[in-house]
Design brief:
Beta-Lactamase; 2 domains; five-stranded antiparallel β-sheet; 5 helices; Cache domain-containing protein
């Protein structure tokens, strides 16, 4: 069944897409810069210097929602370390500051696999999915205990050199900040509206009973998310659930609106 969406829904979808396209545009630019400038098997110090030059200027952007960003190396790629996370935390990121005013600072991650606090980042969604698909990916909302201790969205893309994976590049966003930007757009639809990721996890909702980070359980939702995300024609990127809610994919973000009856 073909579903034609109203101009209001189209505007909402366009606004959501534009918000994430801005961040993904920066991530893609960083990816391209790394692929063009990175040398063969650099050292940790060389990679960190390149991350500083490529990523840090973006934190000064006036429209910046990014609270953390950087490059995560593929295991074995660097010449002097098996594992390395070259990641910066921005001035909007309050992680680990204990009430002090946040400053630009480098994330200090445990990279010794013999340590009990070491975590294999290749098992995490923000690494695993873009590496498997070769495409950009939004992870979350999830509580990021590594970088924020808050509900976070992590946007990542794989980086290649000479046809081989060398790492992923990405950015962190606070879900609270995304809600502040997107909730007014959801309310404009005049119907209960929830924004979910590809796994039906709630990003934002006009319904106070639908908590951020929880799974939205509606009959037929999982199938509808898969079907609309994979559709090529805009008319096919919407579906009707048995309970009357509509599912509308938000461009190429992997996010979707679930719109109730107003």
């Amino acid at each position: 069944m073909t579903i034609t969406e109203s101009p209001a829904v189209s505007r909402c979808v366009d606004g959501i897409s534009a918000t994430f396209d801005t961040v993904f545009g920066r991530v893609a630019a960083w990816r391209d810069a790394f692929e063009q400038q990175i040398g063969a098997r650099p050292s940790v110090a060389e990679l960190d210097a390149l991350v500083d030059a490529i990523v840090l200027p973006q934190f000064a952007a006036s429209d910046n929602l990014i609270i953390g960003a950087g490059f995560v190396a593929a295991p074995g790629y660097l010449s002097d370390s098996e594992w390395h996370i070259s990641w910066w935390l921005g001035q909007l990121n309050t992680f680990g500051v204990d009430g002090a005013t946040p400053e630009m600072r480098r994330l200090l991650a445990v990279e010794d696999p013999e340590s009990e606090n070491f975590r294999d980042y290749t098992a995490l969604e923000w690494w695993r999915v873009p590496v498997q698909t070769g495409a950009q990916h939004i992870t979350g909302p999830y509580v990021d205990y590594l970088c924020t201790d808050e509900y976070t969205l992590t946007l990542t893309a794989p980086v290649h050199a000479d046809g081989s994976l060398i790492g992923v590049v990405g950015a962190d966003l606070y879900v609270d900040d995304i809600e502040s930007v997107l909730l007014p757009r959801l309310y404009e639809l005049g119907a209960p509206t929830t924004l979910v990721n590809a796994s039906a996890r709630i990003v934002a909702s006009t319904d106070a009973h639908r908590a951020t980070g929880s799974l939205l359980r509606s009959d037929g939702l999982t199938a509808a998310l898969a079907a609309t995300a994979g559709a090529s024609a805009s008319a096919e990127r919407a579906a009707l659930l048995p309970g009357g809610e509509r599912v509308v994919a938000c461009g190429d973000t992997s996010l979707s609106l679930v719109i109730g009856q107003g």
